[in-house]
């Protein structure tokens, strides 16, 4: 297992986990597989929609190299954000219950786009049980980002403002269950009217260790988002040197991709 | 607000928890009149708690029925769900000043003002589609292909079919830019194939040649839309157990599903496929229909 994900609640604000990397090499392999899988999906789309597509040798690798070997400044922050999202998807995959699906949405042009969602599906009831909405921030200013960006984003989800995005995302995820018409209707009805949402924030934090009291201070205000603490999840990823760790990790992921046969 | 035929259509919408389709015509009429009165008084809906509840309920109804049009309904139930969703979206667009701030076409979703005219077309309510497309008039996006989609949806809803073909001729060499990140290019490619499908649909309705675009041609526009939906989701394989991880382009997928349904309906209502009446010269009939199709391409309200 590449990550250790013990429960690390920040009562009364939220539950949650604290992440620690226990096998960085395996984590880099999995991150490389995610990046390659997404790039192959894109390649598949480009080839499956256009009359002529010129794919030069090693084009896929070159794409990924440019995403991982970045110039200093915003491109590097963007790269770190992407890697952090990928780590959060891996964490979500490892900790998921049976019959849960995780979307890995694509780059957005604004800050308002959809972040990751995880859909729980009950195969007996043939209905959605819970949808976890994720907001991930790779940052050296965790408290500011949580207060000024994560909480307002969760409030928008909670107040139904982004239900059309939620519904479109869930519709594409549950296609694989071959639902009958009345089951589809019941699912959308429950999704929008019962609105079974949980909210999971994940942030890079420093210093290490990052004790409970620091987590409580970081997640202050979470309690106002939704009343049940089971639906408020605050994960932290403590690192002594956030940018330094991601620079090393990006190089390791690139080495995996470069050595792979894609 | 609704004539008897439209009210009858609304009553065919699927039942939802707390939503009785039999009383939906009255509910939508009441919501419309309340919101108009508030507007005339210069009061914002957000200043009135009752209206806030009304708006929230309308939005929920719109979002559920729009999803039901994507998948979960067929025939009259789909037409009814499409009409109610479009009507509610249109009402909300009239009273909400700021909307959601969401872009029109993103990888993860399409905006309700793009969906509304398409939903009215699925409901076979062309006059309402024209009206609901007005917010799209004159919109130009920096992204050429996504702009072509928006402009073509506007023209489709307002029956300016010749404009769609003329634009396709102008942009026939428009390609997806693959210099940047492929993931962004892939979303453009999926929207581009949706555009190509709209062009093919219209070319068929006007009995005009389908301009050769840079996107893959298919026997029918429906097949193009099916290709978009099929390509939009893919599972990522990892060597570690756990939940399925899916790479998704939910926005183009949803657009393709709406277009597919309206293509099914429009294809059967185009006038160019009408058989000549007995005793009519078939060539004359065909020429006349093609001429007539420019101003009245489909036989609908």
Account of the 3D structure:
The complex is a heterodimer of chains A (262) and B (301). With 262 residues, chain A is of the alpha/beta class. Chain A has one domain. Helices cover 48% and strands 16% of the residues of chain A. Chain A is built from eight helices and seven strands. Chain A has helices at residues 24-49, 59-68, 74-95, 142-158, 163-174, 181-194, 212-218, 242-259; strands spanning 3-4, 20-21, 100-104, 117-122, 127-137, 197-205, 232-238. In chain A, strands 3-4-5-6-7 form a five-stranded mixed β-sheet, with helices on both faces. In chain A, helix 1 (24-49) packs across helix 3 and helix 3 (74-95) crosses helix 8 (242-259). In chain B, helix 5 (112-122) packs parallel to helix 11 and helix 8 (161-170) packs across helix 9 (182-206). Chain B is built from twelve helices and two strands. Chain B has a two-stranded antiparallel sheet with strand order 1-2. At the A-B interface, helix 1, helix 3, strand 3, helix 5 and helix 6 of A face helix 3, helix 9, helix 10, strand 1 and strand 2 of B.
Can I get a quick summary?
Helix content of chain A is 48%, strand content 16%. Chain A is an alpha/beta fold and 262 residues long.
Strand order of the largest sheet of chain B: 1-2
Mean pLDDT of chain B: 89
Give unreliable regions of chain A as ranges: 109-113
Shape of chain A: globular
Largest interface: pair, residues per side: A-B, 67 and 73 residues
Task: Please tell me how large the radius of gyration of chain A is.
Answer: 19 Å
Query: Which percent range fits the helix content of chain A?
Result: 40-55%
Please, how many domains of chain A? Answer: 1
Q: How much is the radius of gyration of chain B in Å?
A: 21 Å
Tell me the β content of chain A.
15-25%
Main structural class of chain B: mainly alpha
Please bin the fraction of helical residues of chain B. Answer: 55-70%
What are the segments of chain B in which pLDDT stays under 50 over at least 5 consecutive residues?
Answer: none
Order of helices and strands of chain B: HHHHHHHHHHEEHH
Instruction: Provide the β-strand percentage band of chain B.
Output: under 5%
What is the tally of helical segments of chain B?
A: 12
β-strand number of chain A: 7
Shape of chain B: globular
